[in-house]
Amino acid sequence: MVSVIGEALIDLVREDDAASVAIPGQPPSYRAHPGGSPFNVAVGLARLGRRALLQARLSGDAFGRQLRAHALANGVDLSIAVAAAEPTTLAIVGLDSDGNATYDFYLNGTADWQWTEAELRMAPADTEWFHTGSLASWTQPGAAVIEAHLHAIRDAAAAVVSFDPNIRPLLMPDHPAAVEAIERMVRLSHVVKASSEDLAWLYPGQGIDDVLERWRGLGPVLVVVTDGSRGAHAITAQGDTLTAPARRVNVVDTVGAGDAFMAGLINALSRFKLADNELALDVVREVLDDAMLVAALTVQRAGANPPTAAELAAARPMGLPATDHDGADPLAADPLAADASARPLSPEAGQPAESA
Fold first, then answer.
1. CB 37 within 8 A of CB 164
2. Residue 27 backbone class (left: φ over 0; alpha: ψ -120 to 50; beta: rest)
3. How is the chain split among helix, strand and coil, in percent rounded to 5?
4. What residue ranges define each of the domains in the chain, with the CATH number in brackets?
5. Residue 319's pLDDT band (boundaries 50, 70, 90)?
6. pLDDT in tens, 137-187
7. Helix 37-47 × helix 257-269 angle, to 10°
């Protein structure tokens, strides 16, 4: 049983439909898509057959009702979701002149950041895994409440804790404070997953191997960094390292790919005991392969549409061929780079590659 703590928001995605193209001056239309990294992870876990409890603060407005309906339709357990009085958080997604996605967030006073300790204590006592990340894990005032809650869980050795920072540079104006907050969450977690884009912004100029070692020193059992067509890199508490290749697929889009990977990673790791803070390399290889396959299946269809347990089982025996690591293969997926709600980063400068 996995409790996923964090935001459930609406992505308003601009659509250049036929009407807006045909009529000069026609305002653009937008389609509302359920989203938010923790929300997507909960959906991914439920589809993979895990009991996934979504600990989110869901508004009673029209968007909140849409989020509830989508979660329930995908088998997510909403028994401990909070009925929030505040409005739903919105992410406005558009396209710039080069066709790149741009984002604006409407989050002041919205439901996702108003956590109380009593609300977080609603999780069943026998919950075996807690996952958090993205905006809710570093947006105040709720982030402090979530951090304190997970601190108590980790101190009591009551469950496994996992974390995915899912960096949003425009929402993190104080870089040193952001690094400090992320590293505190890494210390509380048994399993940490981040993207190479996250690391490029957090630690400009540092290599992935250096950051893996840095985070290993903070105490996780396993740290994983997804690196696009170069696959995923991992380090264990013992200092053993492994790189798993990406999968060779035809990519429709990468929406929700990172969240699908996270769901696949939790689903695969939950088959093993994280005893004595040790994971054998053959176990790490197995769980990374499974998570990579979940992400690869997701990017082959439009939107945040992760596979079911049956679809994963059908794909697992034959698998998918690994990509070359030179990046030259036109079919090489980039399924593990940040998803459609993530902002491309410049590793050299550690800054957003485009404005939103």
1. yes
2. beta
3. 35, 20, 40
4. 2-14+29-352 (3.40.1190.20)
5. low
6. 999 999 999 999 999 999 998 899 999 999 999 899 999 999 999 999 999
7. 50
